[in-house]
Amino acid sequence: MSDSAARDAIMRFFPEPPDYSTHELGILFRFQGRRLFVDAHRVVEITPPVPTSPLPGEAGRGVAFWRGGAHEVRTGTGPAVAFLLLKTEGREFFVASEENPRALRRKELPVGVEDLPEEL
Amino acid sequence: MKKPGASGIDFAAEAAERIEAIRSVLEIGREPKITEINEIFRAAHSLKGLAGLGGFDRFGKALHEAENLLDSIRLSRMPWSPRIADALARFLEGFETSLHAAARTGNDEAFPLEKMLRLLDSARTTAVEGHTRPLSEDLDLPPESLSCLSEYEESRLRANIGSGMAIFAVDASFDLDTFESALKQVGARLNETGEWIATLPQVAGFTADRLAFQLLASAPDEPSGLPEGISARRVSRQRAVPVEVMESIRAASSKTVRLDSERLDRLLSEVEESRASYQKLAFELAHVEAELPPLRRVRLARLRERLGASVVRLTRQASAARTVPVSNLGARLQRAAVRLLETSGKMAAFTIEGGDVEIDRDLAEDLADPLLHLLRNSIDHGIEPPAQRRAAGKPEEARITLAARTRGSRLSISIVDDGRGIAEEQVLARARGLGWVKPTEIPSREDLYDFLFRPGFTTAAAVSQLSGRGVGLDVVAQRVAERHGEVHVDSEPGKGARFHLVVPVAQAVFDALIVEEEKKLYAFPLASIARVEREVPGAPPATAALGAAMGGRAPSSQTGRMRLVLPDARTISVAAVLRQAVLVVRPIGAAVSTPFLIGASEGEGDEAILVIDPRPLLRRVEPGRAS
Predict the structure, then answer these.
(1) What is the ipTM of this complex?
(2) What is the DSSP string of B292-325?
């Protein structure tokens, strides 16, 4: 994904986006109680929660439609306040965040924040 | 020698579109129509002109020969044949390879001109010269009229007569001021029922303010609807053609428009948005309609239904705009098979099953290389030389099949051969040699086949001319995985092997049955359900209850539930059957890892409706049963 697309996604979501390039920025969010950080260039879109249908037999996973496409959703344990559409290895998927995402520079991260793992 | 620089790059860039135009016709998988031959003739002509402008003499000479070959075909001096298609495809490959070099060096010295000229010449000499009978034997026209015909017009007359069309002469005279538009009007009318082939000025009927013409046109019957005072008379001695020939000729004259793929994608995205919005609007309207006076309610419902049908048609047509038939891909593989078999000295018939299956253009492009690799593998390692096949009691000519079918939003495409199958002992020995298997360990057949797709695996003792070029089946698996697909292998020693690719398609549009289970909506492809029944108390239980089969709870009671009966009489119990609908189904990331999930469709209330393939679903509850 291009840098400008990630920037657009962040600009759309945050009322006052931080004045840094997306190379420096990442998004901090909470998923299943863990505070996770993802580099901004992997963020395709940040949205309010999208109606999600649970995937049968797949706890914590569901399907949601967004702009005409069906996306896999990694649902959290608590109620979601936002969805992050992330891109990894050519695939896009939503991650539900249990708190409002924040745009931060990596060096500003609070203690105890993990990088988004390969497998959620 | 030319200096490296812009000219080569410019030429390569300019040439790319023409090359693509020629290739798209060569890969059609059938004999090209005359309009298509004309199109690639023009592309070859333009390429020759570009080569001349750039000072690429070697390219220019070869392109001149290619142009001549195409000219002979379009003028019906020689017939089209798979050998000519193959020669042109090989020529194009050689040209394109040297083009890349020319872009770097600014010259065409690396282009194998002599080899390419021999290739084209060989294709020409094997073609049959035909259609030499004089036209005067078929047409009742005076010699002075026949002598006015251009070579192209003669060829079109011959082609039409050859296909059984009748030829008509239309005599007409027009005012000098308006003759152009009037002539076009008559010609357009003739093109509606056949082909307007020639326009011959006539001396008789010519005055100071009027021009006279004789138009020659093909048609199955006498053309009707011509302007007053103009009539047609039959001049050919052939009988009229059947309707299907007429249809094919009409199709040949149809026009195509090239559209940038990004624009097409944007258009399709808009269509999809419109469809989704319509669906939500219809849902809301259905609630409002109940409160309206009867007449208005009926009118609104009718309008809603008409718009709904139109949206479904639009979605289907838009979806089809991005697709190509598998036969296109098959034609490319078929030509490769001819070349590979020539090199290998083996014999095989290549057939295509499911050639009419439509797949996304990008997907077809992405699958071409993996399939070509599997084909190479099959010819190099799979099928045996004729003597070995004879000794094994098999026909000398092997069979290689490209088989394609869609199942919901997944495409299944296989390369199947009746060769020696996978040499499992060799695979095991190689895996042990690579340290992947311990000396005492006996891996399962499934694990053994998985080794084939690991980087670095090959059993070839030496690098063969056909495969084993350092690129293994791992690349096939990688390319398919990039499309979120999977590769499966079946093999039977001495009987053959089947490499089976399963990939999700961008979207599929099909009729579905929408059901409810545990207060959630699901859909089944209508084609997978034979009928629907009400659950009868005391009757034998259904093969599975939908919720339980998907990992949920079994229903506490059968009362009020419905039963979906599959064509093989197995049954699935659901809480309710809601309706039948045309769904646009999209793949989802989890689709491949959840085999019974075909994809998802956007519901009326924003939720995703999961689309279920009943057969893999039932395999979960009847693991021992083959379906």
Answers:
(1) 0.74
(2) S-HHHHHHHHHHHHHHHHHHHHHHHHHHHHTEEE
